[in-house]
Amino acid sequence: MTAETASVLRPMRVVELLDAAFRLYRRNFWTFVGIIALVQIPVSLLSMAPSMLMLQGIDATDMSQLSIEYFLGLGLTFVLALVQFLLISGVATLALTRAILSTYLGEKIGVLESFQKTWPLLGRFLIVLVLIGLITVGLYIWTLVPCIGWLSGPGILLTVAMAITPLAAPIVILENHGATTTISRVWDLVRRRFWWLIGLMSILYLFNLALVGPAALFSVFSTSASESIFGFTSMADRTLISTIVQTLVGVLASVLYLPLQFTVIVLAYFDIRARTEGIDLFFNAAQGEGQPLGMAQIAEMPMVSYSTQTVTGSEIGYFIILTLVVILLYALLFGAILLFSAGSLML
Questions:
Q1: Does 345 map to a domain?
Q2: The total number of structural domains that make up the chain
Q3: Percent of the chain whose predicted confidence (pLDDT) is above 90
Q4: Per-residue pLDDT tens for 305-328?
């Protein structure tokens, strides 16, 4: 382990953690981006094929007439959605997290080596993702329950999407748990610093919006300019150009953003364990004795259970507050759009 790495194995403020994540991301830019690009680009290019088939299957003169190409493209959409889940959410995410963990611990690792080292863990990680998906379906049903479900359900779903799902990858790699125990362990870590972690992920979401926003504007401009520049006048041609541009823009944004997101997640994982389980003390003690530390040693470090209850009353309150905050933000955004539209009409 390098001295630079050892200096950040301690509890950090949000600004310090983000700064450390940006530095780690910048130093290993091509490795991190290469892992995502190796999977994301081919899958995204393949995803354009169903859209093209569906466009060919639509009769521009009679929209009610759909040919076999349309239904073939619709079927391929579901198949490619499954492939995308397996390759991007599963293989690429696990390999990227493995590379981030290795570089954070001072180990050199390449793009292909990251995939090789995570292959034995892929089955367990996919099972964890499937279980989280099934839990999410149950939570959607929970949101239909009057009053308590309406108020707490959206907050729980947001917590699963923002904190629980991303944090599963480092736990699968570093801790030797079964699939169900892994999910319990993720929630056990998230609930220890609930608002801190939600706030951290909200900052990442805003950064993603700042990255995707200009890219989306470019996509809209390219689509609107397709008629004047390329002479595409039919709806099918313009839709095709829109699909291609949006896919390419989405790939670029995803390839740049996902490595940063999971770098922050990895550092947040260590920060939570340093604050609540004192693993930084074990790191420092081992470093002082000159013992090499790797992922196997992290798995052997003591773990502390936060609570024996699945969900406490206070946490239900957290979910309700989170739901109300989201509703308030959407109301403010909708109100701002209405005011902007009214002002534009008056002008």
A1: no
A2: 1
A3: 47
A4: 887 788 998 999 999 999 999 899
d(CA 206, CA 312): 29
Structure confidence at residue 281 (pLDDT): 81
Task: Supply the range of the domain harboring residue 262.
Answer: 3-336
Q: Say how far apart CA 267 and CA 23 lie, in whole Å.
A: 12
Q: Is residue 344 part of a domain?
A: no
Residue 33, Cβ neighbours under 10 Å: how many?
19
Q: Tell me if 219 is assigned to some domain.
A: yes
Q: pLDDT category, 3, cuts 50, 70, 90?
A: very low
The tokens of 328 are what? 């308030």
For 128, the 3-state DSSP assignment is helix
Residue 102 lies in a domain: yes
Q: What is the DSSP string of 198-238?
A: HHHHHHHHHHHHHHHHHHHHHHHHHHHTHHHHH---SHHHH
Angle, CA of 318, 324 and 330, to the nearest 5°: 135
Least confident range from 7-11, 124-128, 152-156, 309-313: namely: 7-11
